[in-house]
Amino acid sequence: MFDTVLIANRGEIALRIQRACHQLGLKTVMVYSQGDAGAAYLQHADQALCIGPAAPGQSYLDSRAVIYAALASGAQAVHPGYGFLSENAAFSQAVSDAGLTFIGPDAACIRRMGDKVAAKRAMLEAGVPCVPGPQGALPEERERIEAIALEIGYPVIIKAAGGGGGRGMRVVHSAAELLPAVSLTREEARRAFGNPELYMEKFLGHPRHVEIQVLCDRHGNGVWLGSRDCSLQRRHQKVLEEAPAPGIDAQALARVGQRCVEACRLIGYQGVGTFEFLYEDGEFFFIEMNTRLQVEHPVTEMTTGIDIVEQQLRMAMGEVLSLRQSDIVTQGHALECRINAEDPQTFIPTPGTVTRWDLPGGIGVRIDSHVCAGYKVPPYYDSMIAKVITHGATREQALARMRTALAQFAVEGISTNLPLHRQIVTDNAFVAGSVDIHHLERWLSTRQAES
Ligand code: ADP
Question: Does 292 qualify as catalytic in the annotation?
Fold first, then answer.
């Protein structure tokens, strides 16, 4: 049990977690870097502690500083949010070793799911459908690598076992490109992730990104909370998400959802997590599991009525899951636009001072943001400054609410990607639903060519 939670993150998610803690009667400690000093959202915490300079490596990624802050402030639990230390197995272990509760799965689970080769093996064992390709890492011998690619059939994708954030992947269209691509990716993986292990799978040409949220307690109970579609991506970064994923057969989805819960039971998973799939021609293919809260969790909250962060905290406190699968009913449709401080044409970040911040509102509109007029967007971190979430009885209604919300959201002082979102939500293909993961980039290059 714990009564004080240290929030090892910043920005909107720190505030999101703080609200859930207070609603449960828990006290909060927020840590911040010098780059976030003076930010208004820190005032909502019961205590705020500076843990180092603006550079993430010396503050939000410095596990020793975070744990020291927890011990010094009397916090008994640490919530890592997303990004930063949230999927760092050594951090989860260090938090436990310090006698604190890590709000997330244990180190062994994070390590296993963070190694994509091990994760894929565990999923296959649990009967979760995976992208075609051999189990296990790529061998070193050229002939064997070539034989594997031939057996899968081109195009294939080479991926780093330790990869993440859309890095450490290379698509190969023909045998001539194969070995150079393997060497390059191996070298990149060694440098970026400290792990040269690679694997190969079929490259799917026009998949959608569909994911399943799960929630598990420490007593072997778990539920899945419906689907999300995050196909609108640029450079593998999600831009707009929705729940449920449109046009997917309910029974097929339920089968996969149930498999995900069984996989959690098999690996002893605790807390919230997400199974990410590519979905093509009516079939699901597992690509990875995120062992943490995700940016897009609000669309699931709006459609299920379940406060995912509250549940996450309850599970970490050792409560028995009060929800059964039959209690999970999704209602209507929800959308989320990620609003970034960036140029809507070039995507270059635009840090600076926000001089006007007029938020939209009304029925079915939710804003998750730590920003206010006068807030200075620091240049050191991710450029997301707000999430606009709308919910409606139907996808059409959620979209109409999103169009109105985006039109009324007024930001001055810095450029944002609001104009891009305003265009996306009127794009015919997106409005029709079920676009694939390449749609946004195709749409952007057409826009580029026309301008
Ligand atoms: P990361 O952990 O870096 O996000 P993922 O394995 O989740 O890596 O893959 C990121 C993105 O790369 C996917 O959302 C998809 O767009 C693309 N991708 C990954 N694997 C495949 C594949 N087998 N076929 C087609 N696209 C893929």
Answer: yes
Instruction: Kindly report, residue by residue over 415-449, the tens digit of the pLDDT.
Output: 999 999 999 999 999 999 999 999 999 999 998 88
**Segment (H or E) for 237:** strand 237-243
Chain centre to alpha carbon of residue 249: 24
Contact 94, 85 (CB under 8 A): no
Q: How far is it, in rounded angstroms, from Cα 319 to Cα 307?
A: 15
Q: For residues 237 and 442, what is the distance between their CA atoms, to the nearest angstrom?
A: 15
Non-local (6+) Cβ contacts of 231 within 8 A are: 208, 209, 210, 435, 436, 437, 439
Count how many Cα atoms sit within 13 Å of the Cα of residue 169 in the half-sphere of its side chain.
15
Atom of ligand 1 nearest to the CA of 202: 23
How far is it, in rounded angstroms, from Cα 350 to Cα 199? 37
Residue 35 Rama label (left phi>0; alpha psi -120 to 50; beta): alpha
Q: 200 alpha carbon to ligand 1 midpoint, in Å?
A: 12
Asked whether the whole model's pTM tops 0.70, one would answer: yes
pLDDT tens, position by position, 311-355: 999 999 999 999 999 999 999 999 999 999 999 999 999 999 999
- Tell me the CA–centroid distance for residue 320 and ligand 1, in Å: 34
Query: Strand ranges (DSSP E) for 20-121?
Result: 27-33, 47-52, 77-79, 101-102
Q: Ligand 1, atom 20: nearest CA belongs to which residue?
A: 287
Express each pLDDT in 372-402 by its tens digit: 999 999 999 999 999 999 999 999 999 999 9
Q: How far is the CA of 439 from the centre of ligand 1 (A)?
A: 15
Cα three-residue angle 172-117-86, rounded to 5 degrees: 110
